Amino acid sequence: MAHRRIDHGFLQQRQDLDVPRNLLQERDVSTPLPAFLTACAERMAGRTPKDHSPEERRTPRSARGERGEANRRPPFLPFVSVAVRIRPNLSQEPVALWAKSSPSSQRVCCHRGFLLEEYEFSRVFGPEDDNRTVFDQIQGPTLTASVFQGVNETLFAYGQTGSGKTHTIFGSRSEPGLLELFVRRFFDAAPAKAALFAGCYEVLGDSLTDLVDSRRFLAEGSLHHEDIVHDELFAKTQRCSYQIVRVRTAEMCLSLLNNARWNRTSGVSSFNEDSSRSHAIVHLFVQNPGSDGCASIGTLTLVDLAGTEKEHENPSEKGRKCARLLNTSLSSLNRLLRKLQTGSLGESERRQSVLNKCLWEYLRPGCGIALVFCASPLLQHRAATLSTLAMATDSKLIQSQRKSQYVNMPSPRQSARAQASSLSPAAAVAPAGWQLPCSQLSNRADSADSSGRDAQASSRYGTNGRAGILAPGKKQQSGRPV
Ligand SMILES: Nc1ncnc2c1ncn2[C@@H]1O[C@H](COP(=O)(O)OP(=O)(O)OP(=O)(O)O)[C@@H](O)[C@H]1O
């Protein structure tokens, strides 16, 4: 059976889509802070426009931090964007790094032999802080609310090998990680009509591997073929795809993602017996229909980067080869982050590596970015730690000008007409949960479907390295290098 490629709302912001303009609406939610905070305080105090003084009423609403009817959404708090986490010292070795937090400042102290350096960050977590504390302090619930309002929020765990990145994102047997805490929060906070989708893949060098294994769930009947679609990306020399699965319960989502975690490539690094030897990326997509005929489309992306390590310090030849690949992709990502810091991010950075390509949609202007820099306190790791702290310090310059993304919802009559229409057959294969964005984009998606259209597809999607979304039951294709 010929499969059809469908697209969905998550990709609608791209310039290269020939989607009618009115399908895509971006709303800037980055109100200038003073006006924004005034508006927040007023709303929290239950003050309505009627309570304003005549003078306030003469001031334009925009200057008072208020918005038009269409943009009236719950306000955001300014999020913590850069945090440093110091892992516990599990050995008896001397330390060179410790946290010095007080209600007024959050600092990291680093002993450099002849002098002591102090660095200040939004949040500093010491060895005694667990993942729950990290989740609360980085304002996990607020980030979740932001995703429900259609913002792409991305959280990185960054640092040298063995510094606690995987522990932070995926947790351990005894402690849930940020992923589990976010998933539970998503399901607790989800409005009845919202639909949640999850995907998880790893990137190693030029290859992307889907980590989600849905076969067990399909066999059990807890998942149906129509609950799965495939997002395609052009890696350097091949087309890769990963599954995006509709998840209906927190338990199912966690089970799927925990399995994905164990499918990840691991090995031995210079300082970790069970080191992640790839970058793991988890996406939680939320489609949240509103009452005004629009649905917000937001994504939470959690990135557990592989740790940096000096190639020659890895104990095996295979490990050294792997470290080289990882360091190369981390250098490209570092360059991208540096551009973000200076506000000079350009399209060329996207093409520098497959990792950059995968993360581009979730890092570009309009997305919220939070970074948790993990560091080892040990004296022997001081050089690597100082370079992590330098990156963390510079990353304080990154500004998140968050934007919400919306798509128009088709009316029930439009959906029925689209499904019946022979002009939009993709609508007929779009699973119920995807009916909104998929069916609206069906004409475009369909035209990229036929075989022998690689060149056309690459010219359409190649500029951001994505090939689109494949319908349920698709098979991965080999494609021309882009
Ligand atoms: N905050 C923490 N509390 C308790 N244990 C921790 C903490 N951070 C790290 N560990 C432990 O240290 C070890 C290494 O941590 P982890 O695997 O998370 O590091 P990593 O930065 O992901 O390393 P790599 O980059 O090599 O994958 C694990 O056994 C982990 O359980």
UniProtKB/TrEMBL annotation:
GO terms for biological process: microtubule-based movement. One of its GO terms (molecular function) is microtubule motor activity. It comes from the Eukaryota. Residues 410-422 have a biased composition (Low complexity). The keyword Nucleotide-binding applies. ATP binds at G159, Q160, T161, G162, S163, G164, K165, T166. Keywords: ATP-binding, Motor protein, Nucleotide-binding. Belongs to the TRAFAC class myosin-kinesin ATPase superfamily. Kinesin family. This is Kinesin-like protein klpA. It comes from Symbiodinium microadriaticum. The gene is klpA.
